[in-house]
Amino acid sequence: MGKNKVCIITTVHPPFDTRIFHKQAKTLVEAGYDVTLIAQHDKSETVDGIDIIPLPEPENRFSRIFGLSWRAFWLARRQKADIYHFHDPELIPIGVLLKLFNGSKVIYDVHEDVSKQILTKSWVPGSLRKPLARIYSFTETISSRIFDGIVVATESIAENFNRDEAVVVHNYPRLEMLPKFPENGNKKDEVVTTLIYVGGITKNRGIKEAISALSFIDKHKSIKFNLVGKFPDSNFKEEIQALPEYEHVQLVGWLPWEEAWGKAQRASIGIVTFLPMPNHVNALPNKMFEYMAAGLPVIASDFPLWREIVAGNNCGLMVNPEDSRDIAKAIEYIISHPDEAKEMGHNGRKAVEEKYHWNQEGEKLKNLYDKLGD
Question: Number of C-alpha atoms within 13 angstroms, CB side, residue 186?
């Protein structure tokens, strides 16, 4: 196989996004592809064999969708790539134009079920959500027929496409990125129980309910809740900071994956209590598998798919994410059963090493690229 040129495009995700950069782009470089990444960044540089072409940070959502996308298009056209791989719904028109004007192969990577997401977007007026969701679904279905490959993050997203070619590439951890699991378990603070949440800090991800759960826990238990990520909504940030339980919260902010791993390994419990929104119940959040890989017992929303993974591998407890008391009971159970908690952590790590890892997903991605390169 020749060294085909690949251009990956995102106007939404950071340049070192775990799925885009550390998993997909690195996998393609290792397979012999010449990879360029167009993303928001402060400089042009080459990292781990990937050439990064920077985009400026947009002032707002409007300028990102209607300004930054077109800038990305012109930068992408100049690359004259053999394969273009874009990651954001707002880039669908750009993907179509690259196909038409450059005559290259184009892959659409679908991370989320966007039509379901629209139904819960707070910035979309309620009366417009269903019509916009239908319009988007129709646009995505029609335009996807033009593309040469569709990559989706879950089986449920694949159902949106009436074609067998949709390739499910799960967002599992990359084994090479996993820290070595200590034989005697993670080194933790035995006095303080540390909860951890890693990711975007939003209302729909059940952060308020998880923090409020601390009010129902025995006051004699010392608990700290680390939030590793950013608040996209400043109003929600103020709402969270006004909670009485916020005194137990440490807002760590966004961290590079290596530092986030370190935080996770020193924590006691991983929290992934998304609210039961249409786009959540069949999602496979990366953070759930990362907690498992870090050897943490997981407290997760009791969705059928998540129950199959967490309860099915005996690596955590399921809760009603809308019920802070239920979350509190799960936290107290894990605190009160340290040996069982340690076993849950080992079970989660073992499940990732044996089943839920990127190596097998990377093979699916390489097979798609090899097929397009023939």
Answer: 29
